[in-house]
Amino acid sequence: MSLLSDVAIIGVGWYGFSPVTLEASFREMAFEAAVSAYEDAGDLDPRKDIDAFVTCEEDYWAGISITDEFMPDQLGGVLKPVYTVAGDGLQGIASAYMKIKTGLFDTVVVEAHSKASDILTFHEIMNFGFDPLYTSHIDAHPYYLAGLEANYYMLTSGVGREHLAMIVEKNKRNAITNPLASYGSKLSVDEILEAKYVVYPLSVMDIAPLIDVAIVFVLATKDKAKKLSDNPIWIEGVGWATETNYIETRNFGEALYARIAADMAYRLAGIEDPKKQIDLAEIDDKFSYKELMHVEALKLSNRYSSHLDLERGEFNRNGPLPVNPGGGFIGIGHGLEAGGLIKLLEATLQLRGEAVGRQVKGVKRCVVQSWRDIPTATGAVVVLSNEEV
Amino acid sequence: MKMNINLKNRVAIVGAGLTLFRRRLKETPKELAWAAAKMALESAGLELSDVDAVVIGTAPDAFDGIHMKGEYLADGSGGTGKPVMRVYVGGGTGVFTPIAGWWHVASGLFDVVLAVAEEKMSPAMPHPQSVFAHIWDPIIERPIGPNLIWIFALEMHRYMYKYNIKKEDIARVSVKNKRNALDHPAAQLGAKITVEDVLNSEMLVYPVQRLDISPVSDGAAAVVMVSEHIARRITDSPVWVEGVGWSLDTVHWTGRDLAYPKYVECAARMAYKMAGITNPAREIDVAEVYDPFDYKELHHMEGLMLARKGEAPILTREGITERDGDLPINPSGGLLGVGNPIAAAGMMKVTEIYWQLRGEAGKRQVKKPVYTGLAQAWGDLMQVGTVIVLRAG
Does B115 touch chain A (CB under 8 A)? Predict the structure, then answer.
């Protein structure tokens, strides 16, 4: 049984990509995204043509207990198999991937959304994610954890603040020509270094801002994909992992969760030398230093040398391995549990040749990675290709 | 959806674990999850290092007051450094967690998967019912200040009215389940009560009385799910997952037929189709049906097509659903007797069917020989049905 390339992305749709969405609720946003995804997938009727629906969300972000109860109506999934993965969008993709691999399902829809602009107390909610006995009542902004990790990583790797600023400079510059990006701008490294600190060594520039967004993907088997789609994108591998929820016992500065997830995805995709075999990477950059750490965890740079590759311009849009050519979370904004799908959408558009304003030439295989933000050590990886194996 | 002839890999349950179900257990949620996971692994003769992936089921975060509860539970569930995924369909999560475990293995991606469900309701102050104040549509319904007992009173009343069912026939379910639970070592509310006791208990919201309702509980449950080649190697009596099904109805519950759970029927049809079951009332030997309220057992038996519409109370009155009857329902004692730590309660039903099919249920073992069993749960805003069909190997 070949595990290669028998699951494809046949449709994508999105709504939002803006810091504030006054005109639509999260339910209306999901509806709009679903309608365009079904159209993109070859005018599917969700009542007839789709076997199962996955949504990715967390109760506390929505301010509603059992928030998944609101999802069947907007997706066309009433009285059909609908369920929630309480995790990042890429975990939802992995879940759908597994279902298609069982042989029982032909088409599965994955949805994730963020209505971050509705959240008044983002950081207080984040604090509820820490261990209730040991760490959740520490009276500090939860980003202290990112500050500690960034310090540790910089100390051990030789990364300086200017390298973090170079990541910000690259991603914000890439975002300027991306019509979906809200936070593009042309700033020099010196200007970025002048921004005021939130948590040392991270300034407001180093932290990705939030956006509202809803994204829907349609996944299908090989047979269905060939029937329905002119430009299927093949999912070659998926991986996800959780390190530990105890912040005290984690391996700081190496993103082990991303390494385990990447190893799994590479194994499924048959990738032995990621540096050579990957053309483009969409890497989680909720904090600037995380992009460097994650690039190393995904074996796209050697340990402690990602900043040297960055200095040489290897991650630029016209470099040998473009990283976040659409602007990343720092340039586009990040969307809670839809974060992974923002990355997956960028990679899908690049592979289809539809990445208006930020198209990289000759892209054949992408790796997409996401992390579930403070305080988790959970991440997921997906490998995509536009060539059928 | 296709028939299971397209399935590539069979999946077996080879171990099960369960903690005590109690109100105000002193263990943390992590500790509860690990107690159940450890018992499941030991009963399967496996170790944590054998586990490839972990699936976690737990209902609203607000019960434990922890954001991203799946992340919090990952360590306790044995997921450190492993692929961990939390799945969620409200109250139906308990039966849905092994369904998700099934596709982890059936996809061919993993050989050994640990499915863990945990719930700790008692920390919610002043009462976990207050968590349910936040499940409603925030604009249309929440301002009215509804609670769950209200809407179940509506549903129960509608069910009684439509099929002309007497309250004493519903009360029999509570009597049966609490009696069955006397034989369950984890049970919280096993008791010998009479129909009169139920009818004379405190009226909460007409027609729902105190003894119609399952308790507030803490607890955890776990099962080990493996691929066929592992199952053949480690056990002589695997229990196969033959069918899975789930279905989510619209969130607009006010427009639904409250007398009949159509969503349970859709879920059941999906599972029966996969398992090749055409006459469920005849082919299912024993069933664990979700019973947070006594009328829900009857309601769900009808949705599962184990009884015709409006006739489940007759089966109950005639003793057919007793442990020594033709169609034993909830031989464990169900949620009414064993307790209702939401996700863990659903998983408890799966563990009960597992033990029944292996003949390991001890005093709870049903009288007739059983080969095919079913566990079902229900949840969200009265809108989801989750069904798993198991068969002795």
Answer: no
